[in-house]
Amino acid sequence: MRLAKGFPVIAITGPRQSGKTTLARSAFPGKPYLTLEDPDTRLFAERDPRGLLSSYPDGLILDEAQRAPQIFSYLQGAVDNHLIPGKYILTGSQQFGLLSGITQSLAGRVGMVQLLPFAMDELDSAGMLTDNADHLMWYGMYPPLYDRDLVPTDWFPAYVNTYIERDVRQIINIRGLSTFQRFIKMCAARCGQLLNLSSLATDCGITHNTAAAWISVLEASYIIFLLRPHFRNFNKRLVKTPKIYFLDTGLAAWLLGIREQGQIAFHAQRGALFENMVVTEFLKGRFNRGQQADLHFWRDSKGLEVDLLLDDGINLTPVEIKSGQTIAADSHIALKKWCELSGTTDRPALLVYGGDKGLTNGNIAFIPWRKLTTLM
C-alpha cells in the first residue's frame, strides 16, 4: 500500500500460484478485476485497448497484463492524462513480457512488487509452520498446498506441465518439451552449486547458447533464482559465476524424484535443499518489505566460501548455512576467516543451522532454522 500512494501503476510479479491475484484483490477490493487469460477479454484488449481502459475510468486490476503487450502504451496515456496514485494494478507471472512493457511505456510510473510463495514468518503467523525442516523442504510453500486438500506429489506434476505448456511456449519456441523437462531436473540436481552452462548443455544434449536461453526463461518465470557473487572486496581472485537456487524447495525436491518426506533425510541433496530454503527465505524477506534482493555469496579461488552476504547498502552481513542439527567445531571457520579478511570482526555474523538452540561465539550468532522468522 505504500507504493500505491506514490505510483499511478502497481505491478505485482511472481511465479504462478504465488497469490498475486489474491493479494491484488484483497489490497484493492473496490477495483474491478479483469484477467487477460480470458480469451474474450484479451481480444478486447488487443483490438480496442483505449475502449477497454475508458470502460474503467477509476482504474482496474488487470491480471496477466503481459498477454496483451500493446495495452502498455495506452496505459501510459491514461496515466499521464489523469495522474491518480494506485489507479491501475497489473499482475504477471513472466518478467520478460511484463517488465519489457513497463520499461518501454511506463518507466517511472510503476511501483514494482515481487511476490514469491509463502515465507516462513507468514506460515508461522497462521499457525501452519512445521517444526520439521525435512517436511518443509519436501512440501514447499506454494499457497495452494496450504489452502486446499492437496499433497505435493499430486500438485507439482500438474504445476510443471502447466508451466511448460503456458509460460515457456509464450516466451520462446521449444520443440522438444521432454528435453526442456530434463533440463529443469538437471537444474534441480545442481541447486546450491555454481552454474556451469557447459555441463548443463552437455548433460541435456543441447548447445551452450540454448542452455543460457533456457536459464533466462526459468529465471524470468520465477522458477529459479541466480545468486550473484560479491567480488568488490579484497585483492584476491574471486569466483564470478552465479549459483543456482530454486524459488521453492518443494518443486526442487519433486524434480529430484523425492516423493516422500522420509526420503529427504538420507538424500544426497539434503544439504543443498536446506541451503536453498534458507537463501530463499532471506530473498522473500527482502521482497516482502519492498526492497531489492541485494543478496550475494563470496568465494575465492582457493575454495573459501561464505554462503550468503546480506547487503544493506552500508554493511555486509555474512551468513553461513549448515543443515546439521549439531554445531561442529569447524562449522564457522569460513565466517571467521571472512570477518578477518574484511576487517569486520566486531560486527555480527550469522550461522543458520538445522538445530533448535540459539548460541553465540564472539561475534557469531548461531540461529536455529525455525528462528529465521525473527530475522525478517
Task: Provide a descriptive summary of the structure in words.
By secondary structure, the protein is of the alpha/beta class. It folds into two domains: 3-114, P-loop containing nucleotide triphosphate hydrolases (Rossmann fold), CATH 3.40.50.300; 120-374, no CATH class. It is built from 15 helices and 13 strands. The protein has an eight-stranded mixed β-sheet with strand order 7-6-8-9-10-11-13-12, sandwiched between helices. A five-stranded parallel β-sheet has the order 2-3-4-1-5, sandwiched between helices. A hairpin with a 2-residue loop joins strand 12 (359-361) and strand 13 (364-368).
General shape: globular
In oligomeric terms, what are we looking at? Answer: single chain
Work out the count of structural domains.
2
Major sheet characteristics: 8 strands, mixed
- Specify Rg, calculated over alpha carbons: 22 Å
First-residue to last-residue Cα separation: 19 Å
Give helix % range.
Answer: 40-55%
What strand line-up does the widest sheet have? 7-6-8-9-10-11-13-12
Taken in chain order, the helices and strands follow as EHEHHEHEHEHHHHHHHEEHHEEEHEEE
The average pLDDT score comes to: 91
Number of helices: 15
Structural class: alpha/beta
Low-confidence stretches: none
The proportion of strand residues reads: 15-25%
Number of separate strands: 13
